[in-house]
Amino acid sequence: MNSPSSNQDTIHPTAVVRTSTRQRWIILGSRMWILTLICLVAAVGLTWLTLRDNGLTIAINFEQGHGIKPGDTLRYLGIEVGHVTSVDVDQALRGVVVEVSLDKEAESFAREGSRFWIVRPEISLSRVRGIDTVIGAKYLSVTPGPTDAAVQTQFVGVESPPLLPQAELAEIDVRFRQGFGLAVGDPVKYRGIVIGEVKDIRLQPNLEGVAVSLQLTDSARSIARAGTQFWVERPRVSIREVRGLETLVTGRFIAVRPGPEDAASQSEFQGLDTAPFREMPEGGLEIVLFGPELRGLQHGAPVLYRGVRVGHIVTVGLASDATIVEARAFIQPAYRQLVRRDSVFWNESGIDFSVGFTGVEFTSDALSNVVTGGVAFATPNPPGPEINTGARFELMGQPDDDALTWQPHLPVGIHALPEGTQLPTLTRASVQWQEKRFGITRNRQATGWVLPLSDQQVLGDRQWLLPPERAIDGQATLALGGEEFPISRASFAKDVSLPKIKLDKALPASVAIWPSDQLRRPQAPEPCLLVRDGVTAPFPVTTNRLEPIRGGWQLDPAISLSDDWSGAVAVSIQDGRVLGMARIQKGLARIEFVAPKD
Amino acid sequence: MLKACHCCGLIHQLPALEETQVAYCSRCDAALNSSSRYASARTAAAALGAFFLYWPAILLPILDIEKLGHHHDSSLLAGTLELLQHGNYFVGSIVLLFSIVFPLFKIVMLLELSLVGLLHRRHQALTYRIMESVGKWSMLDVLLLAFMVMLVKLGDLVRFELGPAVFAFVGCVVMSMIASLSFDPHQIWQAESDDAMGAKG
Question: Which one of B6, B32, B34, B48 would you mutate to disrupt binding with A, by most A Cβ within 10 Å of its Cβ?
Answer without folding.
Answer: B48
